[in-house]
Amino acid sequence: MSKLKSDSQESLAFGDMNHEWIGNEWLPSIGLPQYRSTFMECLVDARMLDHLTKKELRGQLKMVDSFHRASFSYGIMCLKKLNYDRKDLERRREESAGEVRDVLVWSNDRLIKWIISIGLRDFANHLIESGVHGALIALDDTFDHSTLALALQIPVSSQARQILEREFNNLLSLGTDRRIEEGDSAKFRRGPSWRKKLKPKDPPGQKGKERAPLDISASPTQQLEAYEAYHAATLPITNRMASVRSTSIPALGSAEASPKMSSSTGNINNYSC
Predict the structure, then answer these.
(1) Are 222 and 215 a contacting pair, CB within 8 Å?
(2) 81-85 long-range contacts, Cβ below 8 Å, gap at least 24?
(3) Between the CA of residue 11 and those of 17, 18, 26, 86, 132, what are the distances in Å?
(4) Inter-residue contact 47 to 73 (CB < 8 Å)
(5) Nearest to 152 by CA among 122, 184, 187
(6) Residues 23, 36: contact at Cβ < 8 Å?
(7) Cα–Cα distance between 68 and 186 in angstroms, integer?
(8) How would you class 71 by CB atoms within 10 Å of its CB: exposed for 0-12, middle for 13-18, buried for 19 or more?
(9) What is the pLDDT of residues 151-169, one digit of tens each?
C-alpha cells in the first residue's frame, strides 16, 4: 500500500513538470533557454530527463556543447535531490532570493543578481545562456572561481578577478556543502609539464646500461674527456670501427691528403686507406 502511495506521489510530481514547464521554466532557470524549442518539439518532460543519452542530446536536442550537457546533468541532479517536487523547488528559491543560502536551487537569473551585488555588473550579462546555475556550483567540485571568471569573460590580470575569488569562496562556505581547505588552492595549480613525465632517452649503445659517472670536482675539460672515453668504450664494435675509419681519413687540403707523384714514371698515384 505504501509503495502504491509513493508511486502515485511520484507520478503527481512528474505531472507538475510536464514538457511545457521543462521548456518554458526549467531550461531558462538553468541558463539554457536556447534549447527550449527542440525540447518542446520532442515533448521532453521530467520523466524523460534522466533517460536522455548523450547521442540524443547531441542529435535530436541539438545540445552539442559539452559544458551545456554538464550543466544539464547537474540540473537533473538537483531535481533528484528534491524528489522532483516542483513546489519544494519554488519554495526554496523564494526563500533564498534575498540572501546567500541554499545555492543548490539558485537559478541562472538569481546568480546574475548575485554577480551584480558584488560589484561586477559589467560582466553579469555574459552569464545569459551560459548554462551556469546554482546546482552546478554546489555539486561540481571542479567548478571554481576561475571557471566562473571564464564564463563572465573577466580579464586575467584585473581587480575584478580578485573580487570574484573572494566572494566566490564566501558563497561556497555560506550557501553550499563545499568547503575550501587551506591546501585546496594547490589543486588548481598547473601540473608538471608532460616533458618531465617522460624518461630521457638513452644515447645510442647505452640502452639498459648505466650512465657515465660524473666527477663534479673535475674541470669541465676533464669531465668531457672522461665522458668521451666512456662513450667510446660502450659503443658497439661496428660503431667503433666506423669511428676509427672516420678519424683515420686525412682532412682535405692537408699534406697527407694530397696525391703523391711517382718519381720514376711521373704519374700521379692515389692511395686510399
Answers:
(1) yes
(2) 83/10, 83/13, 84/10, 84/13, 84/14, 84/17, 84/46, 85/13
(3) 10, 11, 18, 12, 29
(4) no
(5) 122
(6) yes
(7) 27
(8) buried
(9) 999 999 899 999 999 999 9
Count of CB atoms within 10 A of residue 58's CB?
Answer: 14
Across the chain, mean pLDDT equals 77
pLDDT for residue 78: 97
Tens digit of each residue's pLDDT (9 = 90 or more) over 241-269: 445 444 444 444 444 444 444 444 445 45
Pull the grid cell for residue 57.
542530446
Asked if residue 22 lies in contact with residue 45, where contact means CB atoms within 8 angstroms, the answer is yes
Amino acid at 129: E
Q: Is the pLDDT of residue 198 over 50?
A: no
Residue in the structure block whose three cell numbers are 591546501: 183
- Pull the grid cell for residue 50: 534522466
Side chain identity at residue 168, one-letter code: F
* pLDDT, position 229: 67
Phi, psi torsion values for 18, nearest 5 degrees: -75, 180
Three cell numbers, residue 86: 516542483
pLDDT at residue 240 in the model: 47
All three cell numbers of 197, joined, read 613525465
